Amino acid sequence: KNVHIGGCEASVLILSCDHLLKIEDIANLLQDEVSKIADDHLQKLMKEGRTSERLTSLDQWKIVKKSLERILISEIFSPSMFEVSLLSLKRMLNANHNISLVIINSINTFSSLMNRKTGIYHDAYVWRMIRYMITSIKDLDEKFRIVFTHLNLFNRRGNFYKDAYPS
Questions:
Q1: Spatial distance between the Cα atoms of 145 and 132, rounded to a whole number of angstroms
Q2: Phi, psi of 56 (to 5 degrees)
Q3: How far from chain centre, in Å, is Cα 134?
């Protein structure tokens, strides 16, 4: 129907450690965006072409469904599973060359558990996970990004980012 939706049709890998991100929420956000695009497109159509050239709800759902197929979610339930996932990023990315973004939600989910088990402090644990990430992907030629969230546990005001990015 010749409607420009945008995007690059790339895949996204989400490592979900805190289990707060739900596929239904992503689908709703995508549906809202596609609905806005469909409404804008409808406003630009001449009245006589609206019935044949508009994006129907079925068309919109097909777009959302196609987008959801490119979102890969790996549910992480333990610190060891998280470490293995980070160390095997290279293998996952080599298996799917269409991945352009890796989202880690959240990198410090298991830090308090690891502190109780091994005595490792929060910032040291997060840096270890970042090193695992870098070690795993350093030889890849592909252009992609890794983004991670960092939970503010116990409302603490640490200097993690100040230490990481001094001014």
A1: 15
A2: -75, 170
A3: 18
